[in-house]
């Protein structure tokens, strides 16, 4: 199957409420007829659960919510794809029950969560693994390869023409036009931006001096709000290049990225391989599962421009009903069924069995005060 088409199976959703999301879900049984979803939800589970966060995982959240609500008719779950930064802010302000974030909580956010979490604290678990595609729109060029240094210089504004010698060196068999490069970045506070720039800082430290940032600095180019806005901006011009969750790449060109001595196209498997060689972040709480992604890996067949989206929750909620509902929904999200739902809807890479087991232990620790 064409890799791009694999990720185009789901279109961006307007996630205003639970019913729009629920329409995207699959049924609750696996291909063999067995229930692979969460099995520890109370029989009388009911109530409303509100989440907000990363726009990159809207399609996956649609699948999670559809499957969960099919199993729990008394429960309502909503998710608003406002972006990772706003999602964490809303969660910490107690405006939502959980957040979706393409970056794990910062230490100061964990500290700030203690009042919101009724004497406990917030924690992260990985729920969604996806490559970040380097998307471009350049007339006459259907195949593009970029090394980390070249990519970093493009987004730093140091390479300005598509027929620059550095891009020619990466693409010796491609006729490149004398066209201005128009870098496109996110205009909002974005976990996708943080993951992308974290990769640039690790893989091309001599060419990218800005570190890992959630909010883009002012260096010209163009911008778009949320994933859909960035993709629309890239689609609307010639010579444009940006970065987006691969599930939203659509019909845009996508660049192969140099890893070691080979140029690797994005895929769910290649993203999963990069996560497999990534250690857990040090100094985190007992239930927190944050990963320090191996951005500079040279592992053959891996694609290190990858995002891991986290579900951010409290370990302590005010009411037992809230704790039960969060626990049940999170359990479904990380279950085999939930992960397969997301893979079908968004082309993501399912969590490994070890990550699912570790995440379930963290979810099981959620309680009421």
From TrEMBL:
Q: Which residues form the signal peptide?
A: 1-22
Q: What keywords is this UniProt entry annotated with?
A: Phosphate transport, Signal, Transport
What NCBIfam families is this protein classified in? Answer: 3a0107s03
Its Gene Ontology cellular component terms are: ATP-binding cassette (ABC) transporter complex
Q: Which family does it belong to?
A: Belongs to the PstS family.
**Which lineage is the organism of this entry classified under, starting from the top rank?**
Bacteria, Bacillati, Actinomycetota, Actinomycetes, Micrococcales
A Pfam family annotated for this chain is PBP_like_2
UniProt-listed PROSITE patterns: PROKAR_LIPOPROTEIN (PS51257)
Q: Does the keyword Transport apply?
A: yes
Q: Which organism is it from?
A: Dermabacter vaginalis
Which CDD domains does the record cross-reference, listed alphabetically?
A: PBP2_PstS
Which top-rank group of organisms is this from?
Bacteria
Q: What is this protein called?
A: Phosphate-binding protein
User: Which region ranges are annotated with the description Disordered?
Assistant: 338-369
């Amino acid at each position: 199957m064409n890799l791009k088409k694999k990720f185009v199976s789901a279109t961006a959703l307007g996630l205003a409420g639970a019913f729009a999301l629920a329409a995207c879900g699959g049924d609750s049984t696996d291909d063999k007829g067995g229930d692979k979803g969460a099995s520890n939800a109370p029989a009388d589970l009911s109530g409303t659960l509100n989440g907000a966060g990363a726009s990159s995982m809207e399609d996956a959240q649609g699948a999670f919510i559809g499957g969960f609500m099919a199993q729990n008719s008394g429960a309502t779950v909503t998710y608003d794809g406002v972006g990772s930064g706003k999602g964490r802010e809303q969660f910490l302000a107690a405006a939502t029950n959980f957040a979706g974030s393409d970056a794990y909580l910062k230490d100061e956010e964990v500290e700030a969560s203690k009042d919101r979490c009724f004497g406990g604290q917030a924690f992260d678990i990985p729920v969604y693994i996806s490559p970040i595609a380097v998307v471009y729109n350049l007339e006459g060029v259907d195949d593009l390869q970029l090394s980390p240094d070249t990519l970093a210089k493009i987004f730093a504004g140091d390479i300005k023409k598509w027929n620059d010698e550095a891009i020619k060196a990466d693409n010796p068999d491609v006729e490149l036009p004398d066209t201005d490069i128009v870098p496109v970045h996110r205009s909002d506070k974005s976990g996708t931006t943080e993951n992308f720039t974290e990769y640039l800082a690790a893989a091309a430290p001599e060419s990218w001096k800005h570190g890992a940032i959630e909010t883009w600095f002012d260096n010209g180019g163009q911008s778009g709000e949320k994933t859909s806005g960035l993709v629309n901006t890239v689609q609307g011009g010639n010579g444009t290049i940006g970065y987006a969750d691969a599930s939203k790449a659509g019909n845009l060109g996508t660049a192969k990225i140099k890893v070691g001595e080979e140029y690797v196209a994005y895929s769910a498997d290649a993203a999963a391989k990069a996560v497999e060689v990534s250690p857990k972040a040090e100094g985190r709480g007992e239930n927190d599962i944050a990963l320090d992604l191996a951005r500079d890996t040279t592992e053959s067949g891996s694609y290190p421009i990858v995002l891991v989206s986290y579900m951010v929750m409290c370990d302590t909620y005010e009411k037992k009903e809230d704790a039960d509902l969060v626990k049940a929904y999170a359990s479904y999200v990380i279950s085999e069924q939930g992960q397969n739902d997301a893979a079908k809807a968004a082309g993501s890479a399912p969590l490994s069995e070890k990550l699912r087991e570790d995440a379930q232990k963290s979810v099981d620790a959620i309680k009421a005060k």
